[in-house]
Amino acid sequence: MENRIFQIRDGILLQHPFLLLFIVILSLIIMDPFQISPVGGRDFRPVKNDIAPYDKVMESWPRDELNRLGKGSLEFKDEVFGPESLEFDTFGRGPYAGLADGRIVRWMGEDVGWETYALVSRNWSEKQCAKGVDSTTSKQWESESKCGRPLGLRFDKRNGNLYIADSYHGLLVVEPQGGIIAKPLATHVDGNPILFANDLDIHNNGSIFFTDTSQKYNRVEHFFILLEGEASGRLLRYDPPTETTHVLLEGLAFPNGVQLSKDQSFLLFTETTNCRIMKYYLEGPKTGTTELVANLPGFPDNIRINENGDFWVAIDCCRTRAQEVFVHNPWLRSVYFRLPLPMRYLARLAGMKMYTLVSLFNEKGEILDVLEDRKGEVMKLVSEVREVNGKLWIGTVAHNHIAVVPYPLQSNLNIEK
Fold first, then answer.
1. Neighbour count for residue 188 (Cβ, 10 Å)
2. Separation of alpha carbons 279 and 267, rounded Å
3. What is the Cα–Cα distance from 95 to 105, expressed in whole angstroms?
4. Distance CA 121, CA 141 (A)
5. Is 11 inside any structural domain?
6. Distance, CA of 148 to CA of 350 (rounded, Å)
7. 396 found inside a domain
8. Would the pLDDT of 416 be above 70?
9. What angle do CA 96, 235, 380 make, to 5 degrees?
10. Which family does it belong to (predicted)?
11. Any domain includes 16
12. Taking Cα atoms as reference points, which of 390, 386, 389 lies closest to residue 83?
């Protein structure tokens, strides 16, 4: 019987040589023996993600038909390189920005310009690290772990210390005078390295909450976290008095931005892979538990509070129907991203066209405002939005400028409460 099955199989393959060729090619793609695919040489194991249905999110999401984010201006062109996070100190000076070349810089006004406020690595050198506009390209990747890549920035308003989440050097601090190499505070937790520190916020009691995006991939490889859907990220807490770091949550899919509420009874964090905002309770009967705040149309980065206690979220937009298919079929991702084509072409074929939007939420997750830039006129990739003195200051991890938008702007959104 077994021989008969083999004979039938061999007969079919001989009669249909194109089928045989297809099977051979498919086998080569899946095995990727020459490691020429975008995921070649990696332990790429896609999994399903806990993400809201595409139609449920996209059909109810308000659109900014006026494209108001495109009305902003680009400032400091080719003067700052990948300014992911923006801060202002207790005296209102700034912005401060963490750059792709490993520096934290401060704007000192037109007469002085930008000055280096601090470095995150003792191994930093101008020759190896300062690549100018190329700092936000792959030319920086080989030296990035040595030079550092500061992401989240926060000032402690009580003492003027600047805390930094660096994707390679963990949690660090700089004293108010600046001009020095940042002091490392947390590089490991429970004996394991913090592989991808991303963003942070500071509680009034001194505790520092920060995200470790992945225990498998570092920042340069961040796109593979999204492709694979792996969920090894963590929410951590550093306690200055004991100089210890604790794991609050684990099993998170690309935890990214962190923001405490105005009364500090909870914090919000974004899960980039799952396109959502989550709440973690710090006080009350729900202490230590999480709940969903909002599902998003795209991939969120940092989240920042304004004076009213509402939350600005930077979102790289948008989800597609093709992504929906990939999310629910990990095997398809495993085959598709092993095709011997550059990642940019595979992304286009999958219908991925990125642009920027920013959204304002209240603590219940209700949408208060949405600003879009569908043409990418001001910002194609956005990482953070800070509302300061009637302006939105918008950072980006991928480009060499800061966007500034007057706010509020006339709105045509029809948002049901």
1. 10
2. 6
3. 8
4. 15
5. yes
6. 33
7. no
8. no
9. 45
10. Belongs to the strictosidine synthase family.
11. yes
12. 386
What is the rounded CA–CA span in Å between residue 240 and residue 224? 33
In this structure, which long-range contacts are made by residues 343-350, counting pairs with CB atoms below 8 Å and at least 24 apart in sequence?
343/38, 343/223, 346/38, 350/320, 350/322, 350/323, 350/326
Question: Is 90 exceeded by the pLDDT of residue 348?
Answer: no
pLDDT attached to residue 20: 44
pLDDT digits (tens, 9 = 90+) for 131-181: 999 999 999 999 999 999 999 999 999 999 999 999 999 999 999 988 889
Is residue 101 in a domain? no
Q: What is the spatial distance between Cα 355 and Cα 374, in angstroms, rounded to a whole number? A: 6
Which residue matches tokens 């000055």? 115
Burial (CB count within 10 angstroms: exposed 0-12, middle 13-18, buried 19+), residue 363: middle
pLDDT of residue 386: 97
**DSSP H or E segment with residue 54:** helix 54-58
SS3 95: coil
Would you state the torsion angle of the CA atoms of residues 31, 32, 34, 35, taken in this order, to the nearest 10 degrees? -130
Cβ neighbours of 271 (radius 10 Å): 25
Query: What is the extent of the structural domain holding 25?
Result: 1-31
373-393 tens-digit pLDDT? 888 777 778 999 999 999 999
Task: Name the token pair of 257.
Answer: 């931005």
Using CA atoms, how far apart are residues 237 and 76, in angstroms rounded to an integer? 34
Residue reference for tokens 């998170």? 252
Q: Which of 278, 239, 282 is nearest to 256 (CA)?
A: 278
Q: Is the pLDDT of residue 8 over 60?
A: no
CA distances from 411 to 120, 218, 315, 329, 373 (A): 41, 39, 19, 39, 14
Q: In angstroms, how far is CA 66 from the centroid of its own chain?
A: 26
